[in-house]
Amino acid sequence: MNGGFVIDFHLDARSGVSPYQQLVHQVQQALRLGLLSVGDQLPTVKEVMAKVAINPNTVLKAYRELEHLGLAAARPGLGTFVTRSLAGDTLAAHQPLRVELQTWLDKALRAGLDADSIEALFMATFRQATDLRKATEASR
């Protein structure tokens, strides 16, 4: 169990991603980071509705998708629970990387970048590094 961690859902209307998919992605991210573990309970539909002002059917659709992916299961009368983790063997490496990333983010903020600029810089650099890695692997 996660010892009290409750996933903090949020929606970005500008993302172009449907609200239910945003919820699914947020659960997947929490599973990859080890923030949610097998046996942890996801927030109830009412809790999610109260937090992000969303239609209950959207939350149910997201939870059904998580069930379809084998990541969660509904227990009638009890709620929806995590059934599988996505945290890999590299989970131990997350904390040192998180510290380095926080240092980088602090520098970016001190340099005057806003959140959108930081995200754009990170994603452009990430894509460039990914493309370079793919090209290097393909040439082997």
UniProtKB/TrEMBL annotation:
Entry-linked SUPFAM superfamilies: Winged helix' DNA-binding domain (SSF46785)
InterPro entries: Tscrpt_reg_HTH_GntR, WH-like_DNA-bd_sf, WH_DNA-bd_sf
Keywords annotated in UniProt: DNA-binding, Transcription, Transcription regulation
Taxonomic superkingdom: Bacteria
Residue span(s) of domain HTH gntR-type: 17-85
Short name of one Pfam family: GntR
Gene Ontology terms for molecular function: DNA binding; DNA-binding transcription factor activity
Presence of keyword Mitochondrion: no
Protein name, per record: GntR family transcriptional regulator
Gene: ytrA_1
